[in-house]
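Team,

Forwarding the record for the chain on the shared tracking sheet. I've put the sequence and predicted structure together so nobody has to dig through attachments.
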Amino acid sequence: MSEEQPDRKQSGFKDKTRVADARERLLAAAKPHDRTEEVPLAAADGRALAEEVVAARDVPHYPRAAMDGYAVRAEDTFGASDRSPEVLRHAGGPGEADEEDGPDEVTPDAAVRVHTGSELPSGADSVVMIEQVDEFGDEVEVFDAVAEGENVAPVGEDVASGQHLYDPGHRLRPSDLGLLKSVGVDTVTVRERPTVGVIPTGEELVQSNPDPGEVVETNGLTVSRYVERWGGRATYRDVVTDDHDALRAAIQRDLTKDVVVTTGGSSVGERDLLPEVVSDLGEILFHGVALKPGHPVAVGVVEETPVVMLPGYPVACIINAVQFLRPAMKEIGGLPRQSFPTTEARLDRKIRSEPGIRTFARVQLREGDEEGERIATPTRASGSGVLSSVALADGWVEVPEGREGIPEGETVAVQDWEWSA
């Protein structure tokens, strides 16, 4: 059971927890799991490594030509110039040797034709670029001297056998998968994706064709897709009505998940039952955050499982999911908590905010008059029920608690919260 909490239904949200403090409490309860699985490379994009990876072989594993041209002994080209080329014997090349015998051997005063990526013939130590030679029957005129190793990729130039590549916790990207395949890795051991039960609540919610007084359920769908995008595995549940017993059963059903997240029913109205239900089952960590829009968010813990109670208004739901659910999932799943990419832009209107409240102002971006300049037009800092204000925005500007708005003309960082990491 939770400790004594303020009666929100009587007092409202006079006292709100600062965003950083609320997140710290949640992360302290979000214990990283230790489950791992082995997956093929093709299925490993975006997954967090569970162990160190080292290269099993050299790349390249043979000395290869880095340019189209002729493989030679560097010393045979010394003194070559446009006025006085060195003349070498044409000793073969691609298509002229038996493939089973391997590449032709380069003997003194000989040259063998090679293509970029070709294995360097034995005896050769460099490659003269094709632009620096002329062919005349069985002879090759070289017009530029090369140094030993020039235009040659040595064994292990890209990756050396035994080289450390990645640490545990590294989130794999497509380029990583290509590198791993090149060094002979076919499967990787990764952290299992954190599991999240997504429970939309509200007796007014329907899936389609709403009558007056009914609302189409969007929050559960949106949050479940964010869970997948952020590296988790979502179970998107049917709508649960505003009934104490039904809500209790829904939360208990999903306590096998790493996180339970609900949408709606988190405020202080008569039908906002979730904080009371979670308090009865476990402990409330906080209820009400100094954040706008979306202060009526709550987080609790039931049987060591974090329960994130998101507000029912769509914008408030999304902002709080980004601020609390996303970092909790990253912590549990061992994924790096990367900052969102930002775009610098000049405000063409003032953003209003209250001191002591962290505000998320939605903006749209456009090109300015000067080359490379971006202009940010604030659309809304309030209006937490207007879903189009986030869906049609290009990002949001985060106004810290210590500021009372941002004036017109100031350069701001516009966060792309839709970024899929």
